[in-house]
TrEMBL record:
<dbReference type="InterPro" id="IPR019797">
    <property type="entry name" value="Glutamate_5-kinase_CS"/>
</dbReference>
<comment type="pathway">
    <text>Amino-acid biosynthesis; L-proline biosynthesis; L-glutamate 5-semialdehyde from L-glutamate: step 1/2.</text>
</comment>
<dbReference type="InterPro" id="IPR041739">
    <property type="entry name" value="G5K_ProB"/>
</dbReference>
<feature type="domain" description="PUA">
    <location>
        <begin position="284"/>
        <end position="367"/>
    </location>
</feature>
<dbReference type="InterPro" id="IPR005715">
    <property type="entry name" value="Glu_5kinase/COase_Synthase"/>
</dbReference>
<dbReference type="Pfam" id="PF01472">
    <property type="entry name" value="PUA"/>
</dbReference>
<feature type="binding site">
    <location>
        <position position="57"/>
    </location>
    <ligand>
        <name>substrate</name>
    </ligand>
</feature>
<dbReference type="Pfam" id="PF00696">
    <property type="entry name" value="AA_kinase"/>
</dbReference>
<keyword id="KW-0028">Amino-acid biosynthesis</keyword>
<feature type="binding site">
    <location>
        <position position="17"/>
    </location>
    <ligand>
        <name>ATP</name>
    </ligand>
</feature>
<feature type="binding site">
    <location>
        <position position="156"/>
    </location>
    <ligand>
        <name>substrate</name>
    </ligand>
</feature>
<protein>
    <recommendedName>
        <fullName>Glutamate 5-kinase</fullName>
        <ecNumber>2.7.2.11</ecNumber>
    </recommendedName>
</protein>
<dbReference type="GO" id="GO:0005829">
    <property type="term" value="C:cytosol"/>
</dbReference>
<dbReference type="GO" id="GO:0055129">
    <property type="term" value="P:L-proline biosynthetic process"/>
</dbReference>
<comment type="function">
    <text>Catalyzes the transfer of a phosphate group to glutamate to form L-glutamate 5-phosphate.</text>
</comment>
<keyword id="KW-0547">Nucleotide-binding</keyword>
<dbReference type="GO" id="GO:0005524">
    <property type="term" value="F:ATP binding"/>
</dbReference>
Length: 376
């Protein structure tokens, strides 16, 4: 591809994520100046006709400064307190900066649970779509005040990618403190070289992305790479870009080669299946024999109990499970028709035996093909 950035010129719907590393300095709260000029850049993209959803970090750092805390706390209840205090300031900073450009802003706070429950997922999507239609800039963050480990996105890279899936964005821009994605962590290796572009699924990228991060960041590059791959599932192109250089967003919109671009090279999955694999939390694992792997991956068939060799975890009927090959590599995800205890009793057996083994039969398949998504 000659200049893969060129394809961004004609794109319409962008999710832009602004990370903690960019917005805050340890102990100094929010960088209001940066919020102001980034808002100006976003205003310019909107003037060019793009629909923008902003995903922003910064609530914990802002709250820490207001509460006079010098170190990011580790205890969940103190993080929740800092985030609740800081979120007020964060949203106020964006609202004020955007008002200057005549832009109305709206706050959307999400937890993983909001996106994993189908009805709430659809509600979040329609809320974002309505705001975009009305010309309002949605400003999204994790609802840290109520997020426990069970329902946490964990880092805003994941939240931004899920938001991109949710609204089927064309582009996900991850603004951070580095100019792009390097072949090793530039914080640790001064010789590291930045990549201009890559296919999102390129396996060589895995060993390049370090998990080191700034004092206030959560994910490092590893979560950004995972976010790029997640966004690619709904067909989005991701760009990791420095949010420190004025005009970077404008350059990007003009098709200039700034940052590192990851183009989607996997087949896009339908909206419902995306929700299924991307938003639900897996509750267990099924280990399949080679025959079962071949028919579900190669022929798009349902998974029958006869192809199961082992069952792990504790899941109920209707919950998401990961399907792995005999080597433990994930090959698919899907909604189980039987609980973990029932699956153990019927594994390795033909479907006709389910009734005699359990005393009842719900479905002949352990996972029906409509509820099964191949993920390799
Ligand atoms: N391959 C890599 N290329 C660029 N940065 C990397 C890489 N591996 C690790 N990093 C680190 O990731 C950091 C950015 O992640 P993080 O601090 O979580 O930022 P943010 O708060 O913007 O999400 C960089 O400052 C850098 O040290
Ligand atoms: N929701 C948190 C942000 C989480 C976080 O730090 O994410 P990231 O910017 O990806 O490192 C906050 O607003 O402080």
């Amino acid at each position: 591809m000659e200049n893969p950035h060129q394809q961004l010129v004609s794109t319409q719907r962008w999710v832009i994520k602004i990370g903690s590393a960019l917005l805050t300095k340890p102990g100094q709260g929010l960088d209001l100046n940066r919020i102001r000029w980034l808002s100006g850049e976003i205003a310019e993209l909107r003037r060019q006709g793009k629909d923008i959803v902003l995903v922003t970090s910064g609530s914990v750092a802002a709250g820490m400064q207001q509460l006079g805390w010098r170190r990011r706390p580790h205890e969940l209840h103190r993080l929740q307190a800092a985030a609740s205090v800081g979120q007020m300031n964060l949203i106020h900073a964006y609202a004020t900066a955007c008002q200057y450009y005549g832009i109305h802003t709206a706050q959307i706070l999400l937890t993983h649970a909001d996106l994993s429950e189908r009805e709430r997922h659809l509600n979040a999507r329609s809320a974002l779509q309505t705001l975009l239609k009305m010309g309002i800039l949605p400003v999204v963050n994790e609802n840290d005040a109520i997020a426990t480990d069970e329902i946490r996105f964990g880092d805003n890279d994941t939240l931004a990618a899920m938001t991109a899936n949710l609204i089927e964005a064309d582009v996900l821009v991850i603004l951070t403190d580095q100019s792009g994605f390097f072949d090793s962590d530039p914080r640790l290796n001064p010789q590291a070289r930045m990549l201009a572009a890559s296919a999102a699924s390129n396996p060589a990228l895995d060993s390049m992305a370090g998990d080191s991060k700034g004092e206030l960041g959560r994910g490092g590059m590893a979560t950004k790479l995972r976010a790029a791959r997640r966004a690619a599932r709904s067909g989005a192109t991701t760009v990791i870009l420095s949010g420190k250089e004025p005009d970077n967003l404008r350059h990007l919109a003009a098709g200039n080669p700034v940052g590192t671009l990851f183009w989607p090279d996997m087949k896009p999955i339908k909206a419902r299946q995306q929700w299924l694999v991307g938003h639900l939390i897996p509750k267990g694992k099924l280990i399949l024999d080679d025959g079962a792997v071949n028919v579900i991956c190669g022929q798009g068939r349902s998974l029958l109990p006869v192809g199961i060799r082992a069952v792990q975890g504790d899941f109920s009927r209707g919950e998401l499970v990961i399907c792995c090959d005999a080597q433990g590599r994930e090959v698919a995800r899907g909604l189980a028709n039987y609980s973990a205890a029932e699956s153990i009793r019927i594994m390795g057996q033909p479907s006709q035996a389910i009734e005699s083994l359990l005393g009842y039969v719900d479905e002949p398949e352990l996972i029906h093909r409509d509820n099964l998504v191949v993920t390799t």
